[in-house]
Amino acid sequence: MKKGDHLFLVDGSGYIFRAYHALPPLTRKSDGLPVGAVSGFCNMLWKLLQDARNTDVGVTPTHFAVIFDYSSKTFRSEIFPEYKANRSEPPEDLVPQFGLIREATRAFDLPCIELEGYEADDLIATYARLAREAGGDATIVSSDKDLMQLVGDAVSMYDPMKDREIRVPEVIEKWGVPPEKMIDLQALTGDSVDNVPGIPGIGPKTAAQLLEEFGDLDTLLARAGEIKQNKRRENIIENADKARISRELVRLKDDAPVVEGLADFVLRPPDGPKLIAFCKAMEFSSLTRRVAEATGADPSGIAATALEIEAGAAAHGPDVGAGKAAAKALGGPTRPDTGNVYATPAELAGKRAEMAGAIPFDRSGYETIVDIKTLDAWIAEAREAGVVAIDTESTSIDPMQADLTGISLAVAPGRAAYLPLGHKSRDGDLLGGGLVEGQVSLRAALDALAPLFSDPGVLKVGQNIKHDWLLLLQHGVAVTPVDDTMLISYVLDAGLGAQGLEALSERWLGHAPMPLKEITGSGRNQLRFETVEIADATPYAGEGADVALRLWQVLKPRLAADGLVSVYERLERPLVEVIGRMEQRGIAVDRQILSRLSGDFSQTAAAIEEEIYETAGERFNIGSPKQLGDILFGKMGLSGARKTATGQWSTSAQILEDLAAEGHELPRKIVDWRQVTKLKSTYTDALPGYINPETKRVHTSYALASTSTGRLSSSEPNLQNIPIRTVEGRKIRTAFIAEPGNRLISADYSQIELRVLAHIADIPQLRQAFADGVDIHAMTASEMFNMPVEDMPPDVRRRAKAINFGIIYGISAFGLANQLSIPREEASAYIKKYFERFPGIRDYMDRTKEHAREKGYVETIFGRRAHYPEIRSSNPHHRAFNERAAINAPIQGSAADIIRRAMVRMDGALADAGLAEVRMLLQVHDELIFEAREADVDKAIPVIREVMENAAMPAISMAVPLQVDARAADNWDEAH
DNA sequence: GTGGTCTCCTA
DNA sequence: GTAGGAGACCACA
After folding, report:
1. What is the DSSP string of A12-28?
2. Is-contact A612 A670, C-beta < 8 A?
3. Which of A243, A305, A339, A743 is paired with A711 by a 20 to 30 Å CA distance?
């Protein structure tokens, strides 16, 4: 760049928001894709370029670039954690447009500039400085006051929406101060949008007046005592520090370490066909025509660009690089030479599914990486591709106590490699022999891979990536950003089949991957993976990564095609790391307490056993329902027997309780025996086996994609079913403890599902009751039985409570009758009465069933889908079951989504509050368990409550408040 | 050893 | 009536 050259810097991010709000909404005709901001942006750019090129009035750009924010995390958050903290999430229909606007920029053949850790404004400041220093001029296309500090002799601004130039006089006219004082002015006034504090009570007018009087901020703060107005003087003295911090927040950094130089910004003549291809994809007909006229290109021969619209959502998160890379790897618009002809996400997704099986699988084609040089070559290839599928092999299923055996990588279909790291010879002692020759050392390999695995510009794809994430974290390697084919499939197809690698591969690739058993064998002689020959391991491991990569290529575009990008981006992808950290933390369990309880239960059980044998007159296996049934209903001939599905006598607790109520001794004893033996075997005896020998804590595993509704599930051990209902059972909970000097905090949503129901079905009485904080079951009883809420008899309330729960479960007379032990006719009458009082509930149920029948799925308030393909079954039982599940899913699922949202935000909120050491450990559907230092507890509880109670916002503004009860104690029993 | 059944623990 | 996981037993391989 030289004297006389002129650089145009377009504030892309600023324009997006402005265009979105200022212009009428616009959607693409063929599929409803929101494109209003994209359209505004394209028209603005086009006009800008045309005006500049065609007129001799004004300035003509020689250099041109469009600048974007990378993400909201910048150095400013470090100076002031609350910076932009109150900024709400962008509107749902704007999110996909972020990526599209970047694509638009590229279609215009203009540089698309962004940089991690910097806002667009900083990059603009940097390039404006560079232009100035080179002797040229710069025009900033924006009207943002934050940029006005840059205006000067060589730098001006241009507001494209008002067609107005902003130079020094305009700044003075608008703000009362010259550009160089804008920083001080903003430091005083603050900015509520960005959460820059400033000084309370000082607006632009006062600030300008003060700066006029004192010259600059430092002088003002130093001589604040001279200010006459009492309130103002006190405010300034008191908040001087805030003003200083604010100054650092608003001061733009003009020395950002930018990659592209001004030479990269030289403006080229328009590439008509490229731009027309994009306009066609967006279905911008008039712009297509204008571009064609101006460039002389013939639009009829130009195919629409293929667009990876899901990259748009990614581009909004902390992983813009990955979004771009993803588009590249998918053969998207960053490689326009690959002959794209698919205009809509749906078309692209369809094409991908078609192509999935096109490249045959060749297990013998996978490479084994045996030296660092080869590994480096694969790493380079992964960087070039921008996306790499990974799969880890290890010595244990449990990532918390597994050693790495190997890692496989895939960068393109069929292009995969296996890096063996911990393979051992089979001979030697029981523990196996030493490491097999010809393996890269673990340390060297991880050192080489770590930068790739944490490169924000390279997306790491995996099937159930939380497992690999955690395993690698245990080996000191961070993996980010990630995509998970299992979770993508779950968002798309929950309820339509399994999300395992095998199932997905067969469903989408028509290929059955090699079963593990094929190389390890099975049974007594089964090999541990680390003793498998490397030559045998490579085809298996390489295939794992290859399959994951191909699945990703097929499934990812479907998110955009089905409108499920935000479900994945907000409720699934961020949870991988959140849950991974929870699993890694684990929870302390007191072995002694469990051991003592086990002894107690053991004695109780033995005593009851003897009594049972005596009463029964013989010894038998009490734990065998078959033998027990024979004793009770055969030998003793008790009445009231019922059969199970397979024709056996039922010995369920319900039956035994009924018999006990008739005065029979034995059934009571069986129930008691079952209780203690259950507690002993499932809890006191099993839990100690899960205590990790290294961490001395229990690390459960949460499945993110195993339920049809969006709930998590917990296993090995299941910490979501720790007893609470009985006195004896609760004792188990006292064994879950905080470390010394710490406490457990339990925070649980009160009646979240009924609140969700009140919101979804919009029931006035329920809304009122929750707003007033009255007893919801008593209120229901009052409505149904025409009794005052005050002094509601417990039994009447109990019935209402059962009905409320029944509603959530998709009520049936049969079920309610069972629950309340009343005749089915009576239950039917209750339900009828309930629907009379709450007709909105019946409407909701009918509506939901109808929706499920029509579309095959139902949705939560956040758009998560649960599929019920069998709701049209001709089997009435089957059908009714699916209907109840479909009625329940939006309620249970919305509640699950809410707590997911809370969990995604929790760690950040705690860190922002200076509570980074408060650790979220467990989730039990409507409850979160934390561990915190005693000193942090009182500060943590309000933060936790705040995050949980506001978790639905801003996506959904609930019609009823969410209420969270939280408490801290030394153990889980007392905390709950 | 594996898988189905029954039972019971949670929200 | 919804959603889960797990232990014990038992028949089958």
Report:
1. HHHHHHHHHHHSPP-B-
2. yes
3. A743
d(CA A472, CA A451): 13
- Summarize pLDDT for A1-58 with one digit per residue, the tens: 888 899 999 999 888 888 887 777 788 877 778 888 999 999 999 988 887 665 554 6
Q: How many CA atoms lie within 13 A of A494 on its CB side?
A: 30
What are the pLDDT digits (tens) for A349-366? 888 888 877 889 999 999
Interatomic distance A627 CA / B5 C1' (Å):
14
Task: Report the residue count for chain A.
Answer: 976
A39 touches strand C (CB under 7 A): no
* pLDDT band at residue A657 using 50, 70 and 90 as cut-offs: very high
Residue A828 Cβ < 7 Å to strand C = no
Is the distance between the Cβ of A624 and the closest atom of strand C smaller than 7 Å?
yes
Report if CB A671 to strand B is under 7 Å: yes
Does A661 contact strand B, using a CB cutoff of 7 Å? no
DSSP A132-147: HHTT-EEEEE---GGG
Q: By the 8 A CB rule, do A909 and A946 touch?
A: yes
Asked whether residue A682, judged by its CB, lies under 7 Å from any atom of the DNA or RNA strand B, the reply is yes
- List, in order of start, the domains of chain A with CATH numbers: 6-265 (3.40.50.1010), 353-563 (3.30.420.10), 590-698 (1.20.1060.10), 743-751+895-975 (3.30.70.370), 753-892 (1.10.150.20)
Cα A930–Cα A935–Cα A940 angle in degrees, nearest 5:
45
Q: On the CB side of A665, how many CA atoms lie within 13 Å of its CA?
A: 8
A703 Cβ contacts chain C strand, under 7 Å: yes
- pTM for this entry: 0.71
Straight-line distance from CA A384 to C1' B2, in Å? 46
In this complex, the answer to whether residue A101 has its CB under 7 A from any atom of chain C, a nucleic strand, is no
Structure tokens at A80: 């002031």
CA neighbor of A202 nearest in space, from A166, A246, A167, A251: A246
Within 10 angstroms of residue A502's Cβ, the number of other Cβ atoms is 15
Asked whether the beta carbons of A815 and A809 are under 8 A apart, the reply is yes
* Helix or strand holding residue A406 (H, E): strand A404-412
Using a 7 Å cut-off to protein CB atoms, list the covered nucleotides of chain C.
1-11
Smallest CA–C1' separation from A524: which nucleotide?
A: B1
For residues A223 and A211, is the Cβ–Cβ distance under 8 A?
no
Closest nt by CA–C1' to A724: B10
Half-sphere exposure (Cβ direction) of A117: Cα atoms closer than 13 Å: 9
CA of A683 to C1' of B9 (A): 10
Scanning residues 509 through 548 of protein chain A, those with a beta carbon under 7 Å from any atom of strand B turn out to be 522-524
**Could you count the other beta carbons within 10 Å of the beta carbon of residue A616?**
18
As given in the structure block, the two tokens for residue A733 are 């909970």
Residues 6+ apart with CB under 8 A from A404: A392, A393, A394, A421, A422, A442, A471, A472, A475
**What is the spatial distance between Cα A889 and Cα A499, in angstroms, rounded to a whole number?**
19
CA distances from residue A709 to A79, A576, A815, A868, A892 in whole angstroms, order as listed: 41, 18, 21, 11, 7
Q: Which stretches within A112-259 are classed as H helix?
A: 120-133, 168-175, 182-189, 204-214, 217-222, 230-238, 240-250
In whole angstroms, C7 C1' to A881 CA is: 27
Q: What is the DSSP string of A505-534?
A: IIIII---PPPTHHHH--GGGPPPGGGS-H
Measured from the CB, is A644 under 7 Å from any atom of strand B?
yes
Question: What DSSP line would sit under A845-887, residue for residue?
Answer: HHHHHHHHHHHSEEE-TT--EEE-GGGG-SSHHHHHHHHHHHH
- Residue nearest the C1' of B1 (CA based): A523
pLDDT tens digits for A735-762?
A: 999 999 999 999 999 999 999 999 999 9
Distance measured from the CA of protein residue A861 to the C1' of nucleotide B1, in angstroms: 45
Interatomic CA distance for residues A328 and A588, integer angstroms: 45
